[in-house]
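**Protein record**
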Amino acid sequence: MLKITGLVLYLIWIILLFFKLRHAVKTKQLSYKELFFGNLPWYRNSRNWILILAILLCEITLDLKTFYLLVLISGLLLILFCGLIKHFKLRNFYSVAALSLVGILLAAISSAILYHL
């Protein structure tokens, strides 16, 4: 039951992230801090608590293959979000490239770990 709860909370956080990105596309203003973590202090923002609980539940209850598969999917979603940010020209090229590099490294490392498990 806790496995499903952790995955659902993580999915809710991804959906909220997508809605924030959609709002940034409409207003043509994007701050990575506000996109991923919000503009409130971390302990007052419910999105941060959803992410903390989701990661904690997933780390405790999921087996290693499933956890690294979740990390791989997160890296691919990060690359997708960077593509959307670049497509709508919300940030300059270098900041999008740096965030894309983080997504590529996350996906590559987790896929290498998954391959060896």
